[in-house]
């Protein structure tokens, strides 16, 4: 049962029917919806709930977060086309539901670590679009002080942003282990993609985490392509939720943010209860190519991209769900759209005009402190500056 | 914004491509980097007549041509790596899958350790393996396989087995915007593993000949391709089969006062330094392209330094533990009484490759020129 495009056509149809059963409680401040696309379970007797209860305020919050990420990525792509951002830039558009669904489930003290497609997470964990965009243009007000760029963004309990694929799973396992022995009852969410799922250290992490019951939540963001190689062409088994073998797993359609939230609730409870790791495979889609240098159309058709945009877009789907069920009004959403636009425009301005990184950033933070008499050696005996 | 701009715009002028790598001393406070047109010409090499008919090719096309010849002549050969089937992220393998089939030119999953280990297995069993690591920065998961397996197979088996049929190709080097993980030059990590060969070409004619040599060499080779030259380096490259020797440096320019030594992209920077030295100081420089880093042609370099008495080595990789250190040590040992000045190493600083201020990090022509002046005035 490989996840192939035909299966998606079916799910498109299912999702389109996701208006669900409404049970009105307390006027229209809360609604309950059905998660239509069934989950698939591995190594679990029971799965997450198929009903999601959503409050008016949460609906607006999640809508705002997804819209903000979408807008942020669009603004970033515009800056890139203007050549104000250079280098490698990997956009999250289309996958917002994964980040927002997880974000609305975990605690601020829980760790997150992900791959290079990290702008969405950086925004959520810092709540500052200018911090993200300024990092992309290399300004000192960026979240890594301009030293990291697109792939190396960090935040509170957000361990990045990793360029080397697969490295984040081992590191995330370690973060979770630290939480366990420090007794904090926190977990770590380690996100990786379908491409990374074939990397050796992912399996090493599974073994370590299951052996020691480490509270790590592995999330496979299966957007069907690892750069230009489709999942079927790179993986002997595309059932990534089963790849952990002895680690239980759940498969879900992650274009549905409510579904993500329900599944993550279940998964977090599982981890926090001391049962060890769990894998959640989130089937999602990215609209842009792998990065800004990849048009994204040499290995998939434009029709496929348009189809997903039309029928499975997470934001449009969520919007339809909450407006037609009467939970929120269209005007409220429109206001949010306007606010988000203003926020991103302001952030783009900071990105363009903010203070550039100072020259000492070239040679500071190589080690923890500047040792007396130490020089960063170059041909002209450059010296460390004094720490600020 | 201090990010360096390496002009991607190419101004064709007869058979010269304008290509420059240096920052223009942008002050830290400017926000927008001005587009500067180039500073120098990429000097294309002239192909020796004995290599036959030539055609215009850039670096990635010359590599495709080399692999095409290998796939044609050697029926056991296979080319593999991440995304190579559709042509590769740098278009080095365009058309090969269509011509030779998907059992010979194929994509691998994302596992560098797996790719190299798999390549070692293919080679040891007697088939020719040309593996691509998508960026040299990603080669480290495969480090154990290269250093502990590939390099040592012949030695530990008493010559019963060897990994000679393995060649690893990987794009390397600064490209203007690569940041920490798309700009590294890792050659010095591998020179520490006897049993491997490490080769870095400076242009298309060199690349094709050297790659063909690497693939046919009886030892595992790591072929690092300066990615910034993929499109910008264009030459009249021989269409047929030819090889260039490994383990031999090339004296590109003869001179009498200073020896300039580099490899890959840095050779072109040093060429500019030689021109500067000639124009401003009336100094005659001898320019050497090392080509093979391991085993390196110390004889050619020693002979040159005995003539000039001054050596400037330059590489992008960080200075401490960079290959310049090995060269400097050997030269001071072999040429002590011939040296007029201490050996100068102009290299990257000892920091991770920066996201911003790349231009300040790189050993550009001005830094090299300063070092040269120091030697002249010693």
UniProtKB/TrEMBL annotation, chain A:
Q: Which residues form a coiled coil?
A: none
Q: What is its EC number?
A: 1.2.4.1
Cofactors (names): thiamine diphosphate
* Superkingdom, taxonomy of origin: Eukaryota
Molecular function in Gene Ontology: pyruvate dehydrogenase (acetyl-transferring) activity
Please list the GO biological process terms of this entry.
pyruvate decarboxylation to acetyl-CoA
Q: CDD domains annotated for this entry? A: TPP_E1_PDC_ADC_BCADC
Enumerate the catalysed reactions.
N(6)-[(R)-lipoyl]-L-lysyl-[protein] + pyruvate + H(+) = N(6)-[(R)-S(8)-acetyldihydrolipoyl]-L-lysyl-[protein] + CO2
Matching InterPro entries: DH_E1, PDH_E1_Alpha_Subunit, Pyrv_DH_E1_asu_subgrp-y, THDP-binding
- Pfam families, alphabetized: E1_dh
Keyword list, A-Z: Oxidoreductase, Pyruvate, Thiamine pyrophosphate, Transit peptide
Q: In its keyword annotation, does this UniProt entry include Cell membrane?
A: no
Instruction: Tell me which residues make up the Dehydrogenase E1 component domain.
Output: 65-355
User: What exactly does this protein do?
Assistant: The pyruvate dehydrogenase complex catalyzes the overall conversion of pyruvate to acetyl-CoA and CO(2).
- Name the UniProt record assigns to this protein: Pyruvate dehydrogenase E1 component subunit alpha
Origin species: Ridgeia piscesae
UniProtKB/TrEMBL annotation, chain B:
This protein is called 2-oxoisovalerate dehydrogenase subunit beta, mitochondrial
Its needed co-factors are:
thiamine diphosphate
The EC code for this enzyme is: 1.2.4.4
State the organism named in the record. Ridgeia piscesae
Q: Which residues form the Transketolase-like pyrimidine-binding domain?
A: 57-232
Oligomeric state and partners?
Answer: Heterotetramer of 2 alpha/BCKDHA and 2 beta chains/BCKDHB that forms the branched-chain alpha-keto acid decarboxylase (E1) component of the BCKD complex. The branched-chain alpha-ketoacid dehydrogenase is a large complex composed of three major building blocks E1, E2 and E3. It is organized around E2, a 24-meric cubic core composed of DBT, to which are associated 6 to 12 copies of E1, and approximately 6 copies of the dehydrogenase E3, a DLD dimer.
**What job does this protein perform?**
Together with BCKDHA forms the heterotetrameric E1 subunit of the mitochondrial branched-chain alpha-ketoacid dehydrogenase (BCKD) complex. The BCKD complex catalyzes the multi-step oxidative decarboxylation of alpha-ketoacids derived from the branched-chain amino-acids valine, leucine and isoleucine producing CO2 and acyl-CoA which is subsequently utilized to produce energy. The E1 subunit catalyzes the first step with the decarboxylation of the alpha-ketoacid forming an enzyme-product intermediate.
Q: Cite the PANTHER family for this sequence.
A: 2-OXOISOVALERATE DEHYDROGENASE SUBUNIT BETA, MITOCHONDRIAL (PTHR42980:SF1), 2-OXOISOVALERATE DEHYDROGENASE SUBUNIT BETA-RELATED (PTHR42980)
Q: Name one GO biological process term.
A: branched-chain amino acid catabolic process
Its UniProt entry gives the catalysed reaction(s) as: N(6)-[(R)-lipoyl]-L-lysyl-[protein] + 3-methyl-2-oxobutanoate + H(+) = N(6)-[(R)-S(8)-2-methylpropanoyldihydrolipoyl]-L-lysyl-[protein] + CO2
Q: Give the record's keywords alphabetically.
A: Mitochondrion, Oxidoreductase, Transit peptide
Give GO cellular component annotations, separated by semicolons.
mitochondrial matrix
The record's section on InterPro entries has: THDP-binding, Transketo_C/PFOR_II, Transketolase-like_Pyr-bd, Transketolase_C
Q: Does the keyword Transcription regulation apply?
A: no
What is an example of a GO molecular function annotated in this UniProt entry? branched-chain 2-oxo acid dehydrogenase activity
**Presence of the UniProt keyword Oxidoreductase in the record:** yes
Subcellular localization, per the record? Answer: Mitochondrion matrix
Pfam families registered for this protein in UniProt: Transket_pyr, Transketolase_C
Give the main localization category.
mitochondrion
